[in-house]
Amino acid sequence: MGIVFAIAVFILGILLFKMLNQTEKTYGYTQTVTISYRPDGTEQIDKMEETGILFVNKKYVMLEGEQFLHKSSDRKKIQAKLNYDGNTLKTVSLLLPNNGEKLYYVGKIASVKEMRR
């Protein structure tokens, strides 16, 4: 019985170590801009005042419950781009299937109560 308990503690310790060593950062966004292209080639830009949270780790951006790949050895698989100004994340750009993109502007959110549900 003691051996089983020791093995369980060891496995849980490894899982906890892996969870705590993840380098995931949390950011809030305050505005989104969707850029789409009409059939005649002109751009259509839609701005929305939205707030939300996004998570960034080594390879993925988590937005609205979905993961988008931002770092890969194969450029064709990339679904998002991170735009930095120095060491500060400014925007996250999602590449849309119709050759458009959706920009999430990172900013400070005053409180979690302002967030949409």
Report the end-to-end length measured between terminal Cα atoms: 47 Å
State the CATH topology: PH-domain like
Stretches where pLDDT falls below 50 for ≥5 residues?
A: none
Largest sheet: 8 strands, antiparallel
Strand portion? 35-45%
Helix content: 10-25%
- Structural class by sheet pairing and helices: alpha+beta
Q: How do the SSEs run, as a string of H and E?
A: HEEEEEEEE
Overall radius of gyration:
19 Å
Number of helices: 1
Tally of extended strands? 8
Assigned CATH architecture: Roll
Number of domain modules: 1
Structure description:
This protein has about 120 residues and is an alpha+beta fold. The chain is built from 1 helix and 8 strands. Strands 1, 2, 3, 4, 5, 6, 7 and 8 form an 8-stranded antiparallel β-sheet that branches. A hairpin with a 5-residue loop joins strand 1 (about 25-35) and strand 2 (about 45-50). It starts with a helix and ends in an 11-residue tail after the last strand.
